[in-house]
Amino acid sequence: MTAVSGKMVSVGFRNAVAYAINQTTGLLDPGSATPTTPYEGVRISRSRALSMNVPEARHIVHFAEDRVFQLDNLPPTEPITGELRTANANQVLDALFGGIKVHTVGEATTTLIGSDQQGYEPQVAILGYQVALDDDEGATTLGLRRYRGILSSRSLLIRREGGMTDQPFETMFTWRPSFINAYPWGIPFTVTDDGAQQSQLIHAMTEGKPWIAVWKQTGVGGAFSFATDRPASAVNKIHVVTINGVLSPPADYTPGTTTTALGFDAGKEPAANATVVAFYERA
Question: What is the pLDDT of residues 145-163, one digit of tens each?
Answer without folding.
Answer: 999 999 999 999 999 988 8
